[in-house]
Specification:
By secondary structure, this protein is α/β, with parallel strands linked by helices. It contains 13 helices and 13 strands. The structure holds pyridoxal-5'-phosphate. Pyridoxal-5'-phosphate binds near residues 69 and 189.
């Protein structure tokens, strides 16, 4: 099995599994005052300090959540701004959430590489008298493109607003420093870089007027009620020992892209010349639908994905590619290959053999320009 879908979820690291199994033997509730409770509290706080140190923030700014989706929801539901500004390529946990608010929502466009239009952002910011709330992701899950967040933050602050940043895809792949980014709220998640699923955090500085969404026991500095998921938080902590990606991943990715371009010079590699995550490639195989590519690779034991969302049995075009101005036909031939901490040269060689086999087979079949696998 060759797993190249680490942006969907990465493979859990062995030391994370061990830490979780050990944590499952713990008895106490971190809110209890007896020794079992204190032990559990101490272990949760150890991870809080570790995450704070990784991101360069104060430990009591860390609010553990059930993952990136919940952290994004807390950031957006806990504020009452005059308007929301979001980039048009945000994750659905942002885009769907803002639709549920009563105030105006504006989606800020991106260019052909998926980089946010700073002029449009400035225009929108200038159009409001009262502060607006802006949310822009650090790295995109489909293209891997890294946004100029510091420039976004400077603009947002010039107009007196707040900036939330979804760094779910960035942590574990590139350096994430809260103060260097200049943001006001930051979302992270454990399962994108070798930690467990179902745990993440929102960073909430003490001067940010955020209201909790989950009320009850007052856990997490009164920002998120509910007994902490101790094994998951401890697993998150174990993964944080590897919060930066091995440089060899980028050369594996870059060599793979060179080979793809040799095999198929007409293939498009999206956002190849802008700042991208070191592990992500978003590539077209001209004339071959992503469904055909994914199924054919799967038959060879290789896991990749497309950028398209599948809901109620219907595959929709990627909103990210649409926002980048890519036509539907090209978007339909795009797959995402995302490498991870355990990806080897042999994995990439195996992928390339399988990809080339499909490319040559369909090229020979399609003497004309007919696409394979399109309905
Ligand atoms: N934000 C981004 C950019 C993501 O890629 C994801 C997951 O795919 C999420 C948020 C949601 O994170 P989680 O799966 O931890 O809820």
């Amino acid at each position: 099995m060759i797993y190249l879908d680490h942006n969907a979820t990465s493979v859990m690291r062995p030391e994370v599994k061990e830490a979780i199994i050990e944590a499952m033997n713990l008895v106490g509730n971190p809110s209890s005052v007896h020794r079992f409770g204190k032990k559990a509290r101490g272990l949760v706080d150890e991870v809080r300090y570790k995450l704070a140190d990784t991101l360069g923030v104060k430990p009591d700014w860390v609010v553990f959540t059930s993952g990136g989706t919940e952290a994004n929801h807390l950031a957006l539901m806990g504020m009452v701004p005059s308007a929301f500004l979001v980039s048009s390529i945000e994750h659905d946990s942002i885009l769907q959430n803002v639709k549920s608010h009563l105030c105006p929502v504006h989606e800020i466009g991106v260019d052909e590489n998926g980089l946010i239009d700073l002029d449009e952002l400035q225009e929108r910011l200038a159009g409001y008298d009262a502060p607006v709330f802006t949310s822009v992701m650090l790295a995109n899950n489909e293209t891997g493109v890294v946004q100029p967040i510091k420039e976004v933050a400077d603009l947002v602050h010039k107009y007196g607003g707040y900036l939330h940043c979804d760094a779910v895809q960035a942590l574990g792949k590139i350096r994430v420093d809260f103060h260097q980014l200049g943001v006001d709220l930051l979302t992270v998640s454990a399962h994108k870089f070798g930690g467990p699923k179902g745990v993440g955090a929102l960073i909430v500085p003490d001067n940010i007027p955020l209201q909790p969404v989950l009320l009850g026991g007052g856990q997490e500095n009164k920002m998120r009620a509910g007994t902490e998921n101790i094994p998951a938080i401890i697993g998150f902590g174990a993964a944080l020992g590897h919060a930066s990606m091995d440089l060899s991943i980028q050369s594996l990715r870059d060599d793979m892209e060179k080979m793809i371009q040799e095999i198929s010079p007409e293939s498009i590699i999206f956002a190849q010349n802008v700042d991208r995550l070191p592990n992500t490639s978003y590539i077209t195989m001209p004339g071959v639908s992503h469904e055909t590519q994914i199924m054919s690779l799967d038959l060879d034991g290789i896991a990749v994905s497309s950028g398209s969302a599948c809901s109620s049995g219907k595959v929709a075009m990627s909103h990210v590619l649409r926002a980048m101005g890519i036509d539907e036909k090209t978007a339909e031939t795009t797959i995402r290959i995302s490498l991870g901490w355990n990806t080897t040269q042999e994995d990439i060689d195996g992928f390339l053999i399988s990809w080339k086999k499909l490319f040559e087979r369909t090229r020979d079949l399609n003497k004309g320009n007919q696409a394979v696998g399109f309905a």
